[in-house]
Amino acid sequence: MNIIKMAAIVLIVAGVLGLVYGGFSYTKETHGAKLGAIELTVKDKQKVNVPVWAGVGAIAIGSVLLLFGRVNP
Q1: How many angstroms separate the CA atoms of 70 and 4, rounded?
Q2: CA–CA dist 58, 13 (Å, integer)
């Protein structure tokens, strides 16, 4: 399997996951204060939304690469 086919499959899978889940979230840890031996931390949950057009575009580009992205030696 060459690099173009692998990239095409990754784009298609990422596009489908973006459409199914609509985004992803992650936890960002920040240090609030340090008082001697006591350290206060704050965990903030962030959500990143993936637009529908980005998911559809990734699927379309991945499909085009998979069908027409052949490297001729």
Answers
A1: 8
A2: 9
